[in-house]
Amino acid sequence: MKHNILVIGGNGLVGKTIIRILKSRNPHINVFVGGRKGGNIGNDLKIDVTNPGTFRVIQENKIDMIILSVNDKEDHVLRFAIENKIDYLDITKPTPDLVKAYAIAKNRNVQSRIVFSSGWMGGIVNGLVKTLSNNTADIQEVKLFVYYSVKDLAGESSAHFMAENVAKPFIRYENNRQIPIKHFLDSENFNFSFGIGTREAYNFDVPDLYILNQIEKVPNVSVKMTYNSKFITWLLGAFQKVRIFNILSLKERRMIFGSSGKGDQSVFEIVVKSNGEVNKLSLRSTKGQAELTALSAVLHTEELLKDFHENNIYFSHQLHQPSSLLEKLKAYETINIQSVS
């Protein structure tokens, strides 16, 4: 069993939450915190993902597994993990960066477990999709609807991604065709659970689009998002329609998406069409996105700790039996799950 786990970005919102949950569930594990401001004393390590020279402390402390919760645009940590045969779990990558990192890993001789966990809320959606159909090959369509509250605690990475990419097209899949679309367009009314009600939801880019189509071979995949404020949702759609995002600076776009509240619920809903049937799963995290993302990372880590999985490249949902993943999520005190067939 692995005992030395390093969380790079461990001083950030999600990183701190990962460490809290991981330690509470696995007190025997030795957890190291990696960050740019860290020292080289005890379990607090100074690591800068833009400077591979700082990675020598990883070997010095005999790290068995790296959890990456900070954006490593150049994939320095991924390359280091592969070269040094260290298990690796990344929860941070937006779709373009995930595609690039996956290509890097596939072209290497991998002798550890390399896990990409960058889907929505730590990569659990794709595992939950499989609980809604007896056979993934029978699934014709998956729709993911996301409810995002501006009152929720939020880290910098998601805000920076939206700021950098809101004016750029991304891909959804229709009969396996790649359809270029943009955020906050093509509204669709959806009746959210947990008392939220019917909201307009707009195009939203998450890695599950790529993973469900390119890895799981689901021919039709779309993701749409709504804000807790109907006005904000409408306003962002209006901004996109008249191309205001195109003329704003990156700093100005970061100001728009960079707000963080003191905490609120996070909700997503999965709708799966399979053999003429429609099944839905609704999940609410009463403690918000950071808690759910961190819990997902911990559940993936615990699967790796069992040492059942051979050295290979994985997407995080591939580590789990879908029914087992569902039960573990249901057992967590701040998560509510409803299924409708």
Automatic annotation (TrEMBL):
Query: Which positions make up the signal peptide?
Result: none
| Top-level taxon of the source organism | Bacteria
Task: Name the InterPro entries for this protein.
Answer: NAD(P)-bd_dom_sf
Q: SUPFAM superfamilies, per this entry?
A: NAD(P)-binding Rossmann-fold domains
Protein's name according to its UniProt entry: Saccharopine dehydrogenase
